[in-house]
Design a protein that fits this description.
With 252 residues, the protein is mainly alpha-helical. It is built from 10 helices and 6 strands.
């Protein structure tokens, strides 16, 4: 059977070791393709890395080999034999066994290796494997994964501080209870009817307050003008009296 004709396998639950081993194979295929497929030793080393792993692990090669065999039985992992026949190398078949896109695989890889994360850190880490240009692009990918039942979040994806996690935990494994959240309408559509309700009661008194303020200012300005006119009139009358006095003196 060729890779292109491989049967699709649903991605459902995986044990902690299966998630770690499969995540390592995916990550190395993305980030270090020249060293991929991986030997058993390299796979074990990748599982026990100190960075970009949570929780930390200390699996031995026997445990990793057993897990690789379990993933082979599922159909997610294959083994390649070198020409010498002395060293087996392992690779994943996730691109052929599932319909997940490259960004979706990168995000699932990151979640399998580290568990729940906020969107900002998830995008930064997943972008090591596949470019994810913006938070909106990340949300689109997460929405698609949530629709497949593969990721969960603790609220709407456009809310600050939201955490997302994969949904591959088997029953009984201790993990935080998040829900599979799928937005049925875009955030903008939800906010449009809310805006008039929120702003109308606040905006109605504002014109009255502005008019009152303007009226007070105009009244003060009118009163000031009246004082100026009164003062000018008094000066005019005084000048008129002076002119009349001069005329009488000249006429006399």
């Amino acid at each position: 059977m060729t890779e292109s004709s491989m049967e699709q396998i649903p991605l459902t639950t995986l044990t902690r070791k299966q998630r770690r081993v499969l995540g390592v194979l995916l990550e190395k295929a993305f980030t270090t393709p020249d060293q991929y497929p991986l030997t058993l030793k390299a796979t074990t080393s990748g599982c026990n890395q100190k960075n970009n792993r949570d929780p930390a692990s200390s699996y031995d090669e026997d445990a990793v080999h057993q897990t690789l065999e379990e993933l082979r039985e599922i159909g997610f992992v294959g083994v390649l034999h070198t020409e010498s026949g002395r060293t087996e190398r392992y690779r994943h078949y996730m691109r052929h066994r599932t319909k997940l896109t490259e960004p979706q695989l990168a995000i699932m890889t990151e979640l399998m290796l580290r568990g729940k994360q906020q969107l900002g850190e998830l995008r930064t880490r997943a972008s090591r494997m596949v470019p994810i240009e913006s938070q909106d692009d990340l949300r689109d990918v997460l929405q698609a994964l949530a629709a497949l039942g593969l990721v969960r979040s603790n609220g709407p994806l456009d809310r600050r501080g939201i955490e997302v996690d994969h949904s591959l935990y088997p029953g009984g494994e201790n993990h935080d209870a998040l829900s599979t959240f799928v937005e049925e309408t875009p955030p903008a559509a939800v906010s449009r009817p809310v805006a008039p309700v929120m702003t109308t009661p606040v905006e109605r008194p504002q014109p009255a307050a502005v008019d009152q303020s303007r009226s007070s200012a105009l009244a003060a300005e009118v009163e000031s003008l009246r004082d100026e006119v009164r003062e000018l009139r008094q000066k005019f009358e005084a000048m008129t009296d002076t002119i009349n006095d001069l005329r009488r003196q000249l006429g006399g």
